[in-house]
Amino acid sequence: MTKVSTKLEHKLEVLKNNKVVLKLWNNFKNFYQIQYQADDEEKERLGKFTENLKIIIKENFHFDRGVKSFKLHLNRFGDMDLSEVRQKMTGLYADGTAYIKSLSIQRQKRFLFDSVKKKIKKVKDKINKKLHPGKNQTYNSDTDVVPGQPVTRINKITRRPTTTPTSVSTVDYRPYMNPILNQGQCG
Hints:
By secondary structure, the protein is mainly alpha-helical. It has 5 helices and 2 strands, in the order αααααββ. It has a two-stranded antiparallel sheet. A hairpin with a 6-residue loop joins strand 1 and strand 2. It is elongated.
């Protein structure tokens, strides 16, 4: 345990050097184009920034040891504490009027979107019925055999359906997915 704690202490030792922290701080401000109004505010944000760097180093140390399955990186919230991030990114708008206006606009858009979607579905259904007659038939699950589905039999003793086993394959879709994007304040 002492080896682990000395390695972690060595990694955290880098933050005691003010030149390294100030260089990271200036890179952070330039990258995210942040400017503060007062020196007091900038000092407060710098303190929060260094605390967040400590958290990132500790958690990534656990990742390197295999204890954690994720790794942390610095993002645009690096100068905020957890309560500020929660306040900024969750909950309602500061003034209720902006929230109510945005809700009414969202409802109008949703109504329009839903009505257009229903009309498109009706048109698609009509086209599919003409192109593929009999394809969308409903089947009685007790008596009919559905094409492409495993045959279901009722077990006479337990009165429960049993299906014939089918092969199960798994696919990892993560390489084909887009990266996670910031959705801002969802409200």
